[in-house]
Amino acid sequence: MTCSRIQDAIINGNTNTGKNACATGGTTEGERATVTPFDPKDLGQYPGRYWSEELETQYTILLRDGKLIADHAHHGEIALTPAAKDQFRGGTWFMPEVKFLRNGAGAVTAMTLGGSRITAIRFDRR
User: Fold this and answer.
1) Chain center to CA of 76
2) Burial of 22 (0-12, 13-18, 19+ CB in 10 A)
3) How many Cβ atoms sit within 10 Å of the Cβ of residue 80?
């Protein structure tokens, strides 16, 4: 990956100073992240009620017309757009990212909401 000094300052605060660091305007190497693509057949695994102890609130995930919707008593319905396996995007500032979590058997047991300044607020499936 080739980086400019401006990108490095924004992303790393100019703290990346290794021999291949972006801070030098050079190249940095790393492992490529693997993203599992979204499979529409998985949609039926997500609907349910999800409760956050931290926020003391609940979202109900609905499957309507082949699309997921997060329904909340105060925020109403929020459409969730697939991004990757178990990962969705919401169109609101407080729910830009939704990640569903699975147990060892592969069952969806929770979801986290976050993005920007809010990260990984957990909602357990009830």
Assistant:
1) 20
2) buried
3) 21
Range of the domain at 7: 1-30
- Other residues' Cβ atoms within 10 Å of the Cβ of residue 86: 18
In tens, the pLDDT along 23-72 reads 555 566 777 778 889 999 999 999 999 999 999 999 999 999 999 999 99
CATH number of the domain to which 60 belongs = 2.40.128.50
Q: From start to end of the chain, where are the E strands? A: 48-52, 57-64, 67-72, 76-84, 87-90, 97-102, 108-115, 118-125
Q: How far apart are CA 97 and CA 83, in angstroms?
A: 9
Distance (Å, whole) CA 90 – CA 59: 13
Query: Are 96 and 83 in contact, with CB atoms under 8 Å apart?
Result: no
Q: How many CB atoms lie within 10 A of CB 51?
A: 15
Task: State which H helix or E strand residue 10 sits in.
Answer: helix 5-12
Number of domains composing the chain: 2
Paired with 118 in beta bridges are 115
